[in-house]
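Example 5.3 — Type II secretion system protein GspF domain-containing protein
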Amino acid sequence: MNLLWGILAIVLLLAWLLLYSQTSRRYPGAVKLQMDGIRLQKLAPPMLYVLERIQVSQRFPLFFFKIQRSVRQINGQQRGGEYTLLFLAEMLTYSYLLLIGGCLISIAMEGEASGFLIGFLLAVLLPVALISDLHSKVKRREQQILLELPELLNKIVLLVGAGSTVQQAIKHCLERKRGQESHPLYRELFQMQRECEGGYSFAQAMEGFSKRCGIQEVSAFTTAVLLNFRRGGSDFVMALRDLSHSLWEKRKAVGKTLGEQASSKLVFPMVLLFLIIVILVGTPAFLIMDL
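Solution (predicted structure tokens):
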């Protein structure tokens, strides 16, 4: 059986090396893309070629669209298709390497098929874990935006009420957040500011900001601004205050959810600590009873 697993491992490795030699220069742009969480980028060309051949976006449009939507929210709207293919190639590369690793484990276990089964199960479960992690990152990004948006809106309301225009109010808020450009909300706002300075109208820049965020609450914020900012005055301030009130309620709900998640994460350590205490206290008692 060792010979069988050895042959299978060699065949899989040679097939990958052959495909890599033919495709290593086929996707220079994708290999140079900077994407958070990608570790096997230089090994991606063979799986990019496989994805291209099977036309994954056409054969599995719903699956591809869901992954692409999440990838775009994390990495931006530009080149979203390339980022999605790179993420899928990363998944397939991990799975392929795990299959080879399963063969090697079977060889180390003197031909036992359980080693290959372990590799096969990991090859199936790891892509699921990567997709789940991607969706978790999107969820955390949405929570970060929802936690910060009401505070930003309050500042805009105060500045507009004091006589500033919306553009001036947003610019003033961003000047005080120069050190927080990594925050998802301010990153998109800085991008909106650069678009305005580059020749885009304020309405176009706001619409782009809303699309990049991809959150209903941000869409409500941009809609309220675009519908009322030209009129200004008390009506505009009242509209923003009403929106601010609803956003603060949303922030409270998000904060409550995060608090519940934090408390649930503490359950296992507390149970483990309780069991350790029971063992430490109970062991001497049992020893005394035996004596």
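Remark. Residues 113-161 form the longest helix (49 residues).
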